[in-house]
Amino acid sequence: MFENLLTSDIGRTAIVPFGVTFALALIVRAAGGRVLGHRLAAIAIGAGFFVAYYLIDGIPAFPPAATKHKVFYIAAAGLALGVVLDLAGLTRAGGHLLAFLLPAGALYWLRQNQIAAGASGALIATLAALFLVSIVVYWRQAASARGSDEPASSSAALFPPIQLLVAAIGLGGIALLGISLGFGSLGLALAAASGGYLLASYLAHAFAGRGLGYGATGAFGGGGLWLALGYGAVFEADAPVKLVLLGVIALAFVADFLARPIALAAPFGAGAFARLARPILHGAVVGIPPAAALAYAWFALGWRMG
Length: 306
Fold this sequence. Notes:
This protein is mainly α. It has one domain. It is built from 14 helices and no strands. It has helices spanning 2-7, 9-40, 43-57, 67-88, 91-110, 112-116, 121-143, 159-178, 181-208, 215-236, 240-254, 256-265, 272-286, 288-300. Helix 11 (240-254) packs antiparallel against helix 14 and helix 12 runs antiparallel to helix 13 (272-286).
């Protein structure tokens, strides 16, 4: 049964990353104590994803040649840097700097040969758009959780992984339907990992009044992971409509500008029901763009997995 779990598609892309992330988030939180465990719990998202990556595609050789393999190392670098920032207490100051440096370096590496040969106007425009999207993603991943130490806004601790969950579902779904089976599987694996972390944080929030921490580890190891997969999907896309749909999915992070105040201001009171309801309301709002993109691909374009 265990062997079947590791070799089946649903096991590798959903069950294993979800279970690994859920269990590890609780273990890190319990073993690390209130401060360190809370600060580093989001490392579980990266761990769950990389376990899934290994099961799906193995560990790529270094230096990698294929875009998908470069994505692995970009994601690993982001997770490692996020952990270092949180451990060093440089979450905000270092995060602001790396939010600019990481996407610039990653995008250059992914298209190094094309840039060296003379970048076209279309490539420059694509790289510029991806860089701007990266800034917004890192910004909302970091900013939407602020104030979660206060009882009135404690639900904000769940907002970054909610964004990540719905955006990863959208990215994985669009990639599976019309771009790449590989990126689609990895996108859904990230969704499963973020779902496992979200459940652990949701339970902690429901029973203790405080969700698990996210910090730079989550922003760079979760949001940065989504960006790395997004870069790869964009460069694999072979039609403008696919780029548009990926852009619509990225609006899940932009929707946080609206979803955060709506969820925190909703008249749910301050008790246990509010702790349960506010994250669900936030997810309903930020989930609109990915849901719209998937619905359009399925019903209007007729995209199906062959």
